[in-house]
Design goal:
The chain crosses the membrane at residues 79-97, 103-122, 143-166, 192-213, 313-333, 353-374, 424-447, 453-472, 479-497, 503-524, 545-565, 601-618, 638-660. The protein is mainly α and 712 residues long. The chain has 29 helices and 2 strands. The protein is globular, with a radius of gyration of 27 Å.
């Protein structure tokens, strides 16, 4: 069918003044020169607008602009209360995952579903007592989801399992005081005061850095933002008649698996004994010999739930990485004890096998991150060049010759109008960023004296460019590469400062960069969700601000619960905080150079770095039916340091998902997110009573452990 660019059909209106004409041009994203003559006369346009639905939502039905509540009505007291409660839950979940494996799956869909469940439950209870409450709209649901994700997202960008924890004395001691470049003066232990202060001065930049480009990213470039689109699809479906019936079943399913997960963790606690060597978490399900090499199934609902949410190729990649490292490479290097490294070293000494584990995994992570960074920057430049060749604008309205195409143009027209009408002033974004930069430039050096004011200022000058690259890449691929940009900042600033405080300066600069680029990508992801659910950008932006403010308090308090109740950072414990060691090692490496590496480690690291580049290249140049079987290097690298146990748990989850898809694909599609969310949330909420029991020094009554039989 032939498409022509035209003005959208509209009802006759009074003569417009100059300001109104400029607003009309902005809404249509078309310059006067680019406007083609209309293909319908005024009477046909009026009939088309009156007789056709303006927006076909998921599940059927129509909604017009008058039915969309004003942006202030989308922000409700009950919505903020639900957001705060879910923010606590999701912070606990994210921190537990970050401190154990460093893998935190996308929780957007779970936040939307749980928000729907809690508000619907609240309104149902009020109705029983004869209290009439306002209707629960898709816009309010979207705002709740946005606020929750903004709050819990700070557990990752805040560095509680990575750069911030890398500064503390435990990580320094784990690496060893005699390790080259690991100095006692480069230590800053956590405390709630400076952590909350640091979070407040760095966490809001990303919200102001790209808010002026929301129209460019969402409407002009039409970036898909897969997670945001999936969340919007779920929210739209929940707020229809048919979707409401399915939602009730999904909520019941989530509640069932939440209860199963919580009760299972309670049952496991009774057998976990004192320390970290007892219970089901140390069950040698594949034999004692395999258990010594971390090959065992530890009955973790969280990792099984993550396996249900994570793509098959990522789960299989982690298992392959575990087999390569713990099944082959580490046993081989351990035979070189006394030759490549001293034989009498401890299991966590970086001059021995432990050093190979950390540095080789770092090389794979850096190789994968560098490749994807270059790839996304190239794609960004290419797309911008194409857009500029088309005068930097994309047509918002296409009038097709068939009815379906016309209906789609009506949907886009209404979404675009709502998305643009409630604009966020440019002066607010600009002044907000400049004001925050001035405050942060003055306060961050007070928290980290090693990071001078001019270093902080230089970081804020380049951060918007990196935030744009990361947000654009996330829109194309759904990959948030904030940690990669943070590592780049770490290397640059640590080497810039040098031995006189370079380790702490690099880690702090990493935190500044990660906070900006991660928050900016999350904001654009949520703008995409709001665009598809007819939510106002103003309500979304305010919700992000509120969620970020909540996260600056809730995330540190949640971390402090783990920090005081458990032995966080112990390489042999449950909360290993694997990325804390990795980030500190990278900072030391940036300051000291390659002299810190064990013997032959540089050659092995170089080989794995190149292999990561080549595998990624192979994934891109091969056909889709072949590349989907090629492993992901980043996923392969995670078990190199952590062990194979969690990869086995997640592989169990992917096997369950694979079989479920083959047996009943529709049921799997409808309920897999609910099952996974229930398993993860039940395990996460158990961390609260578990932490309280630990603080009160109440130990489990039984220690269940395994040893070889006498005859064997």
């Amino acid at each position: 069918n032939r498409s022509v660019i035209t003005s959208p059909p509209r009802l006759p209106r009074p003569k417009q003044n100059k300001i109104e004409r400029e607003r009309e041009r902005e809404l249509h994203c078309l310059s006067p020169e680019a406007r083609a003559p209309p293909t319908m006369d005024d009477s046909e346009a009026t009939a088309a607008e009156v007789t056709r639905p303006l927006l076909a939502v998921a599940g059927g039905g129509a909604e017009d602009e008058a039915a969309v509540p004003p942006w202030r009505d989308q922000l409700t007291a009950r919505g903020l209360a639900v957001s705060a409660g879910l923010g606590v839950l999701f912070c606990l979940i994210s921190l537990k995952l970050g401190l154990t494996t460093g893998i935190v799956p996308s929780l957007n869909i779970a936040a939307a579903l749980l928000g729907y469940f809690l508000v619907r439950t609240w309104t149902a209870l009020l109705q029983r007592f004869g209290v009439v409450s306002r209707p629960f709209t898709r816009q309010e649901n979207t705002v709740i989801q946005t606020c929750v994700v903004a709050c819990s997202g700070l557990t990752g960008s805040g560095g509680f399992g990575s750069y911030m924890l890398a500064m503390n004395h435990k990580t320094y001691a784990a690496i060893g005081p005699d390790f080259p470049g690991n100095r006692a003066v480069d230590v800053k232990d956590p405390s709630l005061g400076w952590i909350i202060g640091f979070m407040f001065v760095v966490s809001f930049f990303g919200l102001f850095s790209l808010v002026a480009l929301r129209k460019v990213m969402v409407i002009d470039y039409k970036l898909p933002y897969p997670s945001g689109t999936a969340t919007a699809t779920l929210i739209n479906s929940l707020h229809t008649t048919a979707g409401g019936q399915l939602a009730d079943k999904q909520v019941n399913c989530l509640g069932k698996y939440f209860g199963i997960s919580f009760l299972w963790n309670c049952f496991k606690w009774f057998f976990s004994g004192v320390g970290n060597s007892c219970g089901f978490d140390n069950f040698p399900s594949l034999g004692l010999a395999a258990f010594k090499n971390t090959f065992y199934f530890d009955f973790s609902p969280t990792y099984i739930g993550c396996g249900l949410l994570t793509p098959h190729i990522a789960n299989c990649s982690m298992l392959l990485g575990a087999i390569i490292s713990w099944g082959s490479l580490w046993p081989y290097i351990s035979t070189k004890a006394g030759d490549w490294y001293p034989a009498n070293l401890g299991s966590n000494d970086f001059k021995g096998l432990y050093g190979y584990k950390v540095f080789i995994s770092v090389s794979v992570i850096l190789g994968d991150g560098l490749y994807n960074l270059i790839k996304i920057i190239y794609a960004t430049i290419k797309e911008i060049t194409i857009a500029r060749s088309k005068q930097g604008r994309l047509p918002l309205v296409r009038v097709e010759e068939d009815d379906e195409g016309t209906k789609l143009s009506d949907e886009d027209m209404l979404r675009n109008r709502i998305f643009i009408n409630d604009s966020i002033p440019l002066w607010l974004a600009g002044s907000g960023y400049v004001g925050l930069a001035a405050i942060s430039t003055a306060t961050v050096p007070m928290i980290f004296p090693q990071l001078k004011w001019y270093l902080v200022l230089s970081a804020y000058l380049v951060a918007p460019l990196l935030a744009f690259c990361n947000s654009y890449g996330a829109g194309l691929t759904d990959w948030n590469l904030a940690s990669t940009y943070g590592k780049i900042g770490l290397f640059i600033f640590a080497s810039w400062v040098g031995q006189n405080g370079g380790v702490i300066a690099g880690l702090a600069a990493c935190g500044v960069m990660m906070s900006i680029v991660s928050t900016a990508a999350d904001l654009m992801q949520d703008f995409r969700t709001g665009y598809l659910t007819l939510s106002s950008p103003r309500s979304m932006f305010v919700s992000q601000l509120i969620g970020t403010a909540l996260g600056c308090v809730i995330a540190p308090l949640s971390f402090w619960l783990y920090w005081t109740a458990f032995d966080v950072g112990n390489p042999d414990g449950m909360f290993k905080a694997p990325y804390a060691v990795i980030f500190r090692e990278m900072s030391i490496l940036a300051v000291e150079g390659l002299s810190a590496l064990p013997q032959h480690c540089l050659a092995i690291c170089s080989a794995f770095f190149v292999a990561a580049l080549l595998i990624n290249l192979l994934r891109d140049v091969t056909p889709a039916n072949v590349s989907r079987f090629i492993p992901v290097p980043m996923a392969m690298a995670i078990p190199f340091y952590l062990g194979a146990y969690f990869a086995i748990d997640m592989f169990v989850g992917t096997v369950i998902l694979f079989i479920w898809e083959r047996v009943n694909e529709e049921e799997c599609r409808d309920f897999k997110d609910a099952v996974a969310s229930g398993l993860i949330c039940g395990d996460g909420i158990w961390s609260v009573p578990s932490a309280l029991l630990s603080i009160l020094r109440i130990d489990p009554p039984i220690c269940m452990y395994f040893k070889p039989s006498v005859g064997s």
